[in-house]
């Protein structure tokens, strides 16, 4: 299968490209820069040059492929406005890719976050929240899944708050980056809120499985660690960096503050049973031992 991949050089995307190639698929990957194009070429993928906002380029990539994995997202989260722009760009791109596949029965796999449900771990059957700072992503994912009725095998892999590899990535990675800037490993609230996590290499396997066999209109949870307490995550980062650890106002985390403060464990029991997915790589706490002082 030739697979068109957007976001193929990120923490998740680079792992997905490698997983697809190792499984015998070929990859056509979107690249917006010479650096990205070289990284993708070195990995063994073919390159299609363009930006996520270049909808005609996206349609061309989908048209010449047997399936699509949509992972690209803007990297400016500094303000509410910047986050909203990234969400709008992603939504337009996802809509263009989905429409390009209508009537073909070809697969498209997109990415979203696991939902949060008060008092328990969320499951694959829980709907994504359509209110809040990232609600636009939920609406665009739901619109893509609705294309199942129009001959598109659309599925979604829901990612936990931390997707990690070599001690980097996800919400835990953002805590580490902020700690390096401020000299304090801060967390919002009392730190008892829980974040789910997964190693990027394990997540990549699930994207491949969803592409190959998941039924249209379904959602899956790439969750290895159901819920790690944020203050415990911060404690490991503090020990590795030699920095103090304490609670700080959620406003210190900008647009992500309200999300950082939420208790949001998630289960992947159905995903494991239905698709045979089984994480094998290090847990978040094990991987955080790779954080360098």
UniProtKB/TrEMBL annotation:
Protein name: Nucleoside-diphosphate-sugar epimerase
Sequence ranges assigned to domain NAD-dependent epimerase/dehydratase in this UniProt record: 3-215
CDD domains registered for this protein in UniProt: SDR_a7 (cd05262)
Superkingdom field: Bacteria
Pfam families from the UniProt entry: Epimerase
Coiled-coil residues: none
Record-linked InterPro entries: Epimerase_deHydtase, NAD(P)-bd_dom_sf, NAD(P)-dependent_oxidoreduct
A single GO molecular function term of this UniProt record: aldehyde dehydrogenase (NAD+) activity
Cellular component GO terms held in the UniProt record: cytoplasm
């Amino acid at each position: 299968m030739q697979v068109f991949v957007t976001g193929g050089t990120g923490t998740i995307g680079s792992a997905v490209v490698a997983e697809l190639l190792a499984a015998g698929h070929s990859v056509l990957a979107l690249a917006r820069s010479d650096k990205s194009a070289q990284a993708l070429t070195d990995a063994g993928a073919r390159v299609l040059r363009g930006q996520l906002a270049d909808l005609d380029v996206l349609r061309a990539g989908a048209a010449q492929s047997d399936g699509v994995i949509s992972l690209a997202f803007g990297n400016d989260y500094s303000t509410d406005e910047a986050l909203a722009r990234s969400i709008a760009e992603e939504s337009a791109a996802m809509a263009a890719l989905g429409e390009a596949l209508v009537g073909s029965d070809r697969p498209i796999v997109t990415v979203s976050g696991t939902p949060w449900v008060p008092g328990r771990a969320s499951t694959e059957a829980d709907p994504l929240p359509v209110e809040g700072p990232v609600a636009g992503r939920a609406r665009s994912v739901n619109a893509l899944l609705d294309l199942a009725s129009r001959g598109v095998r659309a599925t979604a892999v829901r990612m936990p708050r931390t997707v990690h590899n070599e001690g980097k990535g996800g919400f835990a990675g953002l805590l580490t980056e902020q700690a390096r800037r401020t000299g304090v490993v801060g967390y919002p609230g009392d730190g008892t809120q829980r974040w789910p996590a997964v190693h990027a290499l394990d997540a990549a396997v699930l994207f491949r499985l969803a592409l190959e066999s998941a039924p249209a209109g379904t959602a899956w949870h790439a969750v290895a660690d159901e819920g790690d307490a944020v203050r415990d995550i911060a404690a490991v980062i503090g020990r590795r960096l030699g920095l103090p650890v304490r609670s700080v106002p959620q406003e210190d985390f900008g647009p992500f503050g309200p999300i950082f403060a939420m208790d949001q464990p998630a289960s992947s029991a159905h995903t494991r049973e239905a698709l045979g997915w089984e994480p094998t790589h290090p847990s978040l706490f094990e991987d955080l031992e790779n954080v360098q002082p």
